[in-house]
Write a structure and sequence with these properties.
Length: 273
């Protein structure tokens, strides 16, 4: 089962007079890969229980590994698709004036306590009592979301057509060891122009932008069950250790530890209060 993207259903969600509306947990998001770009008035919080979610907006792709969530502000056109089998919880949110929630699309870390709250929210009736226990659960969810740490799991997508072509080339051949000058020549730019345009459009050097792409590709493949050794070879690293060093510098932890912390099964709270 997956989130219904029909305009009438999204309109119903937007018009439902509650600050938080839950959608059923998603068993497999691969069906959404070809879905049209859409938006809704309420913001959306997509929490990944299993697998990796990809949220694509006009200028970036956000990667959401297990036990993280992507925050999509209301009115922002986007598409969401899964890498492999994905299970997630979707919340549509129209929060009160306080607390302050993120103003931009971002990936946030979901703590164990926050995770339990989201599992509980998934059982709320549509027209829950905003002044009762369910309403207090929703208020605490807003408090936790306001302080959730933001993770740097964003791949900026440049708007220039030549840089978009470069993005496609890098994704198609991530192990290609061409120099910056060689990549620039393939899209009819000088090395200096390429470097300047990347800084202007995505705020990164070519090297950092490419490493960020490798992190994105690695998380997708590792979550699908590939080994660190296989991913390192696929991405063109001389050894698994050199890939692990890059991943640790970009993300803060080696890949196995990073995913292990997120793949531990979350306790279900069916019947618990």
């Amino acid at each position: 089962m997956y989130v219904d993207l029909r305009s009438d259903w999204l309109s119903y969600v937007d018009e439902l007079p509650r600050p938080l509306v839950t959608a059923n947990a998603v068993a497999n998001l691969e069906a959404l890969e070809q879905s049209p770009r859409h938006h809704h008035q309420k913001a959306q919080l997509l929490f990944t229980v299993r697998g990796v979610i990809n949220c694509e907006v006009e200028d970036a792709v956000w990667i959401v590994p297990p036990h993280c969530a992507v925050w999509i502000p209301g009115g922002l056109p986007h598409t969401v698709f899964g890498s492999g089998e994905v299970e997630c919880i979707s919340l549509f949110i129209q929060p009160p004036e306080a607390p302050k929630l993120p103003s931009d699309c971002c990936t946030v870390t979901v703590s164990s306590f926050f995770r339990h709250l989201l599992m509980r929210a998934n059982t709320l009736p549509e027209l829950y009592d905003v002044n009762g226990p369910d309403g207090r659960i929703v208020s605490v969810i807003f408090d936790e979301l306001a302080v959730a740490p933001v993770e740097d799991l964003r791949l900026p997508i440049p708007s220039d057509s030549r840089l978009k072509k470069l993005t496609d080339l890098l994704i198609a051949a991530p192990a290609d060891h061409a120099t910056v000058a060689e990549w620039a020549s393939r899209i009819a730019l000088s090395e200096r122009s390429l470097s300047r345009m990347l800084v202007e459009e995505v705020g990164m050097s070519f090297g950092r932008w490419r490493r960020q792409l490798h992190v994105v590709l690695a998380l997708r493949r590792l979550s699908a069950g590939q080994t660190v050794q296989a991913v390192a070879m696929d991405l063109g690293y001389e050894s698994a250790s050199s890939f692990v060093t890059m991943f640790r510098k970009m993300v803060g932890k080696p890949p196995n530890r990073y995913l292990l912390e997120r793949l531990r099964p979350a306790p279900h709270e069916h019947g618990e209060r």
